[in-house]
Amino acid sequence: MTDATLPTDEGADAAVAARDIAEVPAVEVITTAAVHLMSAAAVKCGLAPDTAEAKGADLTDLDEARRLITALAGLVVAAAPEIGNQHARALRDGLRSLQLAFREASPYPDAPGEGPGEALTGPVS
């Protein structure tokens, strides 16, 4: 046998991971991805809690927040029909909160309809 045909722990781990993910419903994968985007966007909007090491506001990066919120808007808009109203409503609420937090954190707020993700969701107020 060559090295290429020997089973490896890495290959076995990948097979186990594939079986595990196969058991997860699509709605859970989608909502988990959305929550990760929301969490990252919240930190980049300066909403992270203060710690002994840093203030949450010190982690603000509005350029990155804009990208994350726009990606989240795309996911929420595209996935809403697939995940059902109950899940979509919660994601839309979180998205709206982030869009408003971005507007509040920005020293120069975008015009209505020009904020992150608003091309996909419509103006947020």
TrEMBL record:
Stretches the record annotates as Disordered: 103-125
Lineage: superkingdom: Bacteria
InterPro entries from the UniProt entry: DUF1844
Name recorded for this polypeptide: DUF1844 domain-containing protein
Provenance organism: Actinotalea fermentans
